[in-house]
Specification:
The protein is α+β, with helices and mostly antiparallel strands. The protein has twelve helices and twelve strands.
Length: about 300
């Protein structure tokens, strides 16, 4: 038999234009044919069918970015799809978008461990109608063997928290570790994001006017601000609090503003930051009792 040639030595298919190598074909086959340091998966619907090949194709250390648009499955409204694709259970409530992000991360971590690789989340977001995660993949049998240490369930009892065991009302299994890398996410600036993401005039929709363009820029600024401000907390253990549910838990009629809650928690020696979520939510390193006391005393 003839040994298979090295992926590094194999002649590549496709056409190179303006420094971009364009190849049309089966993505799984193409990813396996050559080593990569950076892969961005953005399929239609679920990325599950491409994760195994993408993770194998990443070199010893590399970045994998994944977009998932099957949010009905990840958020828990399509329960059979969630069980079939991700082996998870979701609940449609204020925490479903964070759950969706963590269920996808947990799936990536599990498949990576099968190939002796560990994941380190860089940036993980639910934005619009899709989930977007970026992780650093590293080949390490020792670290890959510990992947279950960051897998668990979100328990629906105040405060909503993670547990290794499923009990009561729960969602998961999912990634329970950090979802940001503060050294990277915390350095994001609105100016840089706008220069990279706003696009050229010729790239904008023809029916956009100045109001649409300005609105797009404000959305970018808001997103980046929330990412950079929450980066430190989302890179460590924290409590994620849904503001709309805090009033019920604290037994108060009117929910204080985010600004007042932030001021109260910081006065008590804790950190707090609003998160980039469709719902009004914040992350904090404060304990549950302190959060309730601040909510009750905020004026």
């Amino acid at each position: 038999w003839v040994p298979e040639p090295s992926r590094f030595a194999r002649e590549q298919e496709g056409v190179v234009e303006d420094g971009i190598h364009w190849i049309e074909g089966d993505a799984n086959k193409l990813m396996i044919q050559a080593p990569f340091q950076w892969i961005d998966l953005d399929p239609f619907g679920s990325p599950v069918g491409f994760l195994d090949a993408a993770i194998q194709a990443i070199s010893r250390v590399g970045v994998l970015e994944v977009t998932a648009t099957d949010t009905a499955a990840l958020c828990g409204s399509a329960k059979t799809s969630a069980a079939r694709r991700y082996g998870a259970v979701g609940i449609t409530d204020s925490y479903m978008h964070d759950d969706a992000t963590r269920i996808l991360l947990g799936t990536i971590a599990r498949i990576a461990a099968m190939h002796d690789k560990s994941i380190h989340p860089i940036l993980s977001l639910f934005d619009g109608h899709h989930v977007r995660v970026s992780v650093l993949l590293k080949r390490s049998k020792e670290e890959a063997s510990d992947w279950r240490e960051s897998i668990g369930y979100r328990i629906r009892s105040n405060p909503y928290h993670f547990s290794k065991q499923a009990e009561g009302e729960f969602s998961g299994p999912m990634w329970t570790g950090p979802i940001f890398d503060a050294n990277i996410a915390g350095r994001m600036t609105a100016e840089k994001a706008i220069s990279l993401c706003s696009g050229k005039d010729e790239d904008l929709p023809e029916d956009w006017d100045d109001i649409d363009i300005e609105h797009s820029k404000r959305e970018i600024e808001r997103t980046v601000r929330h990412i950079s401000e929450s980066a430190e907390l989302l890179s460590q253990d924290h409590l994620l609090i849904a503001v709309d549910e805090l009033g019920i838990a604290a037994g108060i009629g009117q929910i204080p503003s985010m600004k007042k809650i932030k001021s109260g928690l910081e006065d008590a020696g804790f950190k707090m930051a609003r998160c980039h979520m469709p719902e009004a939510m914040f992350a904090t390193n404060a304990d549950w009792q302190t959060i309730l006391e601040v909510a009750r005393s905020a004026k």
